[in-house]
Amino acid sequence: MIDVPRRSLAAGAGLLLGAMAVQARAQQFASAATPKFRVQPLTVNPEKVKGLSAGLLRSHHGNNYAGTVKKLNAISETMATVNFAEVPAFTVSGLKREEHIAYNSTILHELYFDGIGEAPTQPSGMLAQAISRDFGSLDRWKAEFTATAKALAGGSGWVILAHSPRDKRLFIHWAADHSMAPAGAVPLLALDMYEHAYAIDYGADAAKYIDAYMQAIKWTNVERLYREAMRV
Ligand SMILES: [Fe+2]
Questions:
Q1: 59, 65, 124, 212: which could join 109 in a potential S-S bond, CB 3.0 to 4.6 Å?
Q2: pLDDT one-digit tens code per residue, 88-127
């Protein structure tokens, strides 16, 4: 039998206890609830949208949006296994940044697709009143929304119509990427200005895409979200 010095035995026991503690913490993190995000189906018939082809909408939905949801799930599953008590800060910042981008991109894409309709609609009721109150008129709203989109053309990002529960009014927000969605706002309508949203149909001509989108806005969905936002 090998004679092991008492100090070595104590050190070995310490290491074992340390390893058990790390494992216990890892198990604790591994048992944390992992969100599971599902790809939401298109609520519009892509064959019937004027100005945006079925090929474009299906590619955008099936590749870009669904790919983002898949990435978000992968990030969430990875984070469930991370021992945050031990992992370096740069690993945490990388994961959290990617999670934030994928989460916002998921929400904004779902809003984008839900806000596209098959037939022209107009805002009505309390939403129409709020647009007149906060933007002067629907035409004034359209001018600001369109100009904001064109200001993003050639780059990428989102134009977002949102209700602010804090200020109790509507705003049109400019977001140069997925992570710039306004704090504290309830988004009602989102226009995707990434090139993948229009290049199949319009090449680099973002202005034509914006014009087509403006004709396809499903205002009934915006109104539904606005009614829900007013209860926040
Ligand atoms: Fe997109």
A1: 65
A2: 999 999 999 999 999 999 999 999 999 999 998 999 999 9
Please check whether the domain covering 53-232 is classified as CATH 3.20.20.70.
no
Tell me the pLDDT tens digit for each residue of 47-73: 999 999 999 999 999 999 999 999 999
Residue 219 DSSP label: H
Span from the CA of 124 to the centroid of ligand 1 (angstroms): 28
For residue 63, the 8-state DSSP code is: I
Q: What's the gap in Å between 114 CA and the centre of ligand 1? A: 13
Residues 208-229 as b/e (b if ≥16 CB within 10 A, e otherwise) read ebbebbeebbbbebbbebbeeb
Residue ranges covered by each domain of the chain: 53-232
The larger pLDDT score, comparing residue 10 to residue 163, is at: 163
Task: Give the pair of three-digit tokens for residue 228.
Answer: 């829900």
The number of angstroms, rounded, from the C-alpha of 179 to the middle of its chain's C-alpha atoms is 8
Distance 105 CA to ligand 1 centre (A): 8
Q: How far is the CA of 229 from the centre of ligand 1 (A)?
A: 24
